[in-house]
Amino acid sequence: MPTLSRKMPVWLPVALLLIAMASIQSGASLAKTLFPLVGAPGVTALRLLLGTLILVAVFKPWRLRFAREQRLPLLFYGLALGGMNYFFYLSLRTVPLGIAVALEFTGPLAVALFSSRRPVDLIWVVLAILGLWLLLPLGQGMESIDPVGAAWALAAGACWAVYILAGQRAGAEHGPATVALGSVIAAVIFVPLGAFQAGEALWHWSLLPLGLAIAVLSTALPYSLEMVALTRLPTRTFGTLMSIEPAMGALSGMIFLGELLTFTQTLGLVSIIAASVGSTLTLRREAHIERVDIN
Question: What's the predicted TM-score (pTM) here?
Answer without folding.
Answer: 0.79
